[in-house]
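Weekly modeling sync, notes
Attendees: AB, CL, MP (scribe)

Item 1: holo prediction request
CL wants a bound-state model with uridine-5'-diphosphate before deciding which constructs to order. AB pointed out that an apo prediction alone won't tell us much about the pocket. Agreed to run with the ligand included and paste results into these notes for async review.

Input as submitted:
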Amino acid sequence: MILVTGGAGYIGSHVTRELINQGYEVIVLDNLSTGHQSAIDRRAVFKLGDIGDRQTLDDLFNQYDIKAVMHFAANCLVGESVQNPLKYYDNNVGKTTRLIQSMVENNVKKLIFSSTCAIYGNPEQDIITEQIPKKPINPYGRSKLMIETILSDTLKSDELSYISLRYFNAAGAYPSGEIGEDHDPETHLIPNILKHLQGAVENIEVFGNDYDTPDGTCIRDYIHVQDLTNAHILALKHLLSQPKIGFQYNLGNGKGYSVKEVIGECERITNKKAKVRYAPRRPGDPPVLVASSSKIKNELGWFPVYTLTDSVRSAWQWHIKHPHGYQ
Ligand code: UDP
């Protein structure tokens, strides 16, 4: 059995579905603080609970034969982490540490950890490889880097194996439009543009157009959630087949798009015109984040197959089918 923490969230719900499609038995642990129960695949066992609750974790590890944990449950908003850093250090660092402790003590030895490109901060290189210095510039990135450090130390002292997957900008939705991205409040670029184009919000705010980039807006590497999902399954298979490993992999497309370019792509797919309002820079935002994913390509044979167009198109399908999200 695979334990998926945060399986009611955006990426966790997509991975849960695919795990079950591929024959894995899944138990989802989620406190539903940001996730949605209806996003959880009905074929999964669902346990409502918090990853910070040792008793809940110990009970799960005792009750089920859990071979590995995929740990998605976390807070993941750069802006919010600047406003409320203690929430991030408590949920992302404190509670994850308790999860790792419980795993070690209950002899569950395999972990896939959701990390982020935010650990790199504001890199000098145009294309980010895993080796470059980690200098996060916001509490979200620092909280994830702290766990990577804890994992690397735990690898040396205990029987814990892990793969840390550093996501760039997750985007898109399940091809059927059944599950997708639904945050409250929504802060991510693509869903915000699409909501605006659906008429739910008056304009799309662009945070900063004075960055040192060709059009002045921030550049990000958007990676389809189904590509991320496939990377998780490959990583899980690798983790389960190896004795003891601790690896980190970037997950991105290797191509950056500016905020303005993403707006243009959304306009093209939806055939609607966006009303843009320029707003000040958002604290904690680096100007450019683009991945090299050569390491996971070479070592695990992962290749992203979806483009930005696919991400926007599938996200649009999700928005059309669910104009009010999971409500
Ligand atoms: N962004 C924006 N308007 C929005 C949401 C995001 O201009 O309504 C910008 C944001 O400042 C960043 C980029 O879009 O430069 C991607 O932001 P998002 O929150 O989607 O992901 P992040 O890179 O923070 O993980």
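Recorded for review: Residues 189-221+254-321 form a domain with the UDP-galactose 4-epimerase; domain 1 fold (CATH 3.90.25.10).
Action items: CL to compare against the apo run; MP to circulate these notes.
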